[in-house]
Amino acid sequence: MIEIDRITKxxxxxxxxxAVTMTAETGTITVIVGTSGSGKTTLLRMINxxxxxxxxxxxxxxxxxxxxxxxxxxxRIGYAIQGHGLFPHHTVARNxxxxxxxxxxPKDRIRTRVDELLALFSMDPAxxxxxxxxxxxxxxxxxxxxxxxxxxxxxxxxMDEPFGALDPIIRARxxxxxxxxxxxxxxxxxxxxxxMEEAIRLGDRVAVMDSGRLVQHGTPAEIIARPATTFVADMxxxxxxxxxxxxxxxxxxxxxxxxxxxxALPVDASLRDALSSCLWTxxxxxxVERDGAVVGRVTLDAxxxxxxxxx
Length: 311
Hints:
The chain has 311 residues and is of the alpha/beta class. The protein contains 14 helices and 13 strands. Helix 7 packs parallel to helix 8.
């Protein structure tokens, strides 16, 4: 668990982070979102002491980060940034194994961990472990960057705009990868972005920052349905609010008995997915499946009713 207690950072008399307090629960993704200059990256960097707070405290599992020397603290905290920061002349395996090597892990254990992570990211170890970063696509480099951050089984993974350099299709896949792997490993993640869509897609909790202050901290549904300030409302966008709310509701919540034709959607897909399918194919209902078997349908009327209720 990460506890941020009235953290402040002052430059030239200006509070770029101003008395921010929030908690990130174990095994969750907290996304910090805000415009350029809002203080979100500075806040993230104070957690692993790449920036030293002017005042306030960060605690990891109840222990102040000030109780550990910065370089030792950072070995316990994974850090992934935009552009991946891979060592260009080191192989994929050496990049991923960098921190375990600093921690004096045995070679066999490092190799096992490298192969385990590559497999987790759907990259065949035999095919990828000896490649150089320049031989990888942008999406593959991003996967290796996150794998390296996870290599030493850190208490916490910090991510600063990790998907910002990727094109939209690869970015969406990378986000899905991160969600899948976070669930598999039970990692605690804090991620910075300027993209509210990304925050809503990834976050268990979303922290919105404006001019150094934390202006709202809640679930994606709370942020969308009840923005605390005009700034938050503008970031969410009035036109997109119903669609964004639909993206948070799984089909399992509204599936009903009845006939429907065409390609089925999985039960854990969202109402936004079902709406898109209906509008694209001209159907008034889509079948819903679980483990390959159709279990019911979701109708266009039910989707519309839920959008109106949530909006």
